[in-house]
Amino acid sequence: MKRLFLTVVAVLSMTMTFAEDEKLNNVESVKAYNMEVNYTKLADFLGLSLDQLEAVQDIHTSFCADMLNAANANTDERKSMVNNAVEKDLKYMRNVLTGEQFRKYLMLLNVTFNNRGIER
Question: Which domain holds residue 2?
Answer without folding.
Answer: 1-32
